[in-house]
Amino acid sequence: MEEKNPLLQVVDLSVDFRLDRKTSLHAVRHVSFDLYKGETLGIVGESGCGKSVTCMSILQLNPARRTRYPSGQILFDGKDLLHMTPKQLRPIRGNEIAMVFQEPMTAMNPLFSIGDQLMEALRVHNPRMEKSEAYERSLEAVRRVKIPNPERILKTYPFALSGGMRQRAMIAMAMITRPKLLICDEPTTALDVTIQAQVLDLMNELKHEIGTSIIFITHDLGVISEMADRVLIMYGGRVCEEADVDELFTKPRHPYTVGLIDSHPNPEYDGDRLKVIPGSVPTLRDMPAGCPFNNRCAYASDTCRDVFPDFEEAESGHTVACHNWRQALQKGGAAR
Ligand code: SF4
Fold first, then answer.
1. Which of 31, 144, 205, 289 is most deeply buried (CB count within 10 A of its CB)?
2. What is the position in ligand 1's atom list of the atom closest to the CA of 254?
3. Partners of 25 in the β-ladder
4. Average pLDDT rounded to a whole number, residues 194-211
């Protein structure tokens, strides 16, 4: 990564969801990470681990009335997004920072054509832009995501496109302002495998062409190995491990990471039954004290049930939050 200062710094972020006046649930606890220019950071974990809530916090997209941020800063180019007013955030949302969701229809307006929506995405941040220039740039954006017959597509409504084409149009809309940061929340989960591979290739091409940094949220380790430079593993609202992608796959340290990798078919998969992590993910209401993985972990000790572990550097650039990672490593990981 050529730049020394991170583009984005998430510092000690905690997020609570208020149920009523007296009750709050802890959705995210003390999450910190940096993202550098041109880097892709994968955030991996099962549903409810806090990965989407963390990323929605970057643009304050969690439901405003129910969400509290008991701690944290989100520094983007040195400015704290978490404490900005909606007016201060407006020029950044969809312009310097854009998002791509799993289901494009949640972000597209079904009543407007793709062309209208692309031009609107441009002109909302550049009100003086001539309509003809907005049209040309929209056409270029659709060409760049390799949608055939771009002139016709600009006149088409979202419902008339296939899932893969709709996701390409969504990516065109997100990238049209050449954002510094693109947040992708399970962007290929709803697509079949061939289309998924095409969309991932496309995102990598755009990343190199534009130099955008990407946060890629997924539960799919196969996708993360294709996309990410660095990976953050989350469980129970906490970060439990962070490493470069190759290091993480070859030398996982946290028992949960080992369990995730063991339960995912690899290219040499020989048809044997895959290992599973015993038990299920706790809900926010029944999150255990101490390490949130303690009721599923073969290495849990009394300390694990009381105290969340500090981060330790296992190797340079590879950190792990586990009281017993050395013992787990000696014995071969989580359920090995
Ligand atoms: Fe958590 Fe303890 Fe298991 Fe480590 S050994 S993952 S701290 S329960």
1. 31
2. 6
3. 17
4. 86
Query: For residue range 242-270, what is the model confidence (pLDDT) as tens digits?
Result: 999 999 999 999 999 999 998 887 766 66
* The pLDDT value given to residue 259: 92
Ligand 1 pocket test, pick from 294, 296, 311, 336 with the greatest ligand atom count within 8 Å of Cβ, gives 294
The residue whose C-alpha atom lies closest to atom 7 belonging to ligand 1 is 322
Domains of the chain: total: 1
Cβ neighbours, 10 Å, residue 325 = 23
Domain span holding position 303: 256-335
Determine the pLDDT at residue 271: 65
CB 31 within 8 A of CB 13: yes
Q: Are 100 and 182 in contact (CB under 8 A)?
A: yes
pTM for the full predicted model: 0.92
- What is the 89 CA–ligand 1 centroid distance (Å)? 39
Q: Is the CB of 217 under 6 A from ligand 1?
A: no
Q: Ligand 1 pocket, 300 CB below 6 A? A: yes
For atom 4 of ligand 1, the residue with the nearest CA is 322
pLDDT in tens, 265-308: 776 666 667 788 888 888 999 999 999 999 999 999 999 999 99
Please state the atom number of ligand 1 nearest to the C-alpha of residue 328: 5
* Any ligand 1 atom below 6 A from CB of 259: no
Q: Judge whether 11 lies within some domain.
A: no
Residue 336 pLDDT > 50: no
Q: Which residues make Cβ contacts (< 8 Å) with residue 93, sequence separation at least 6?
A: 59
In a domain, 286, yes or no: yes
pLDDT tens digits, one per residue of 303-325:
999 999 999 999 999 999 999 99
The average pLDDT across 111-136 equals: 93
Distance 194 CA to ligand 1 centre (A): 38
CA angle 277, 282, 284 (to 5 degrees): 150
In a domain, 32, yes or no: no
φ, ψ for residue 235 (rounded to 5)? -150, 135
What is the radius of gyration, based on Cα positions, of the chain? 21
Residue to mutate, 254, 277, 293, ligand 1, most ligand atoms under 8 Å from C-beta: 293
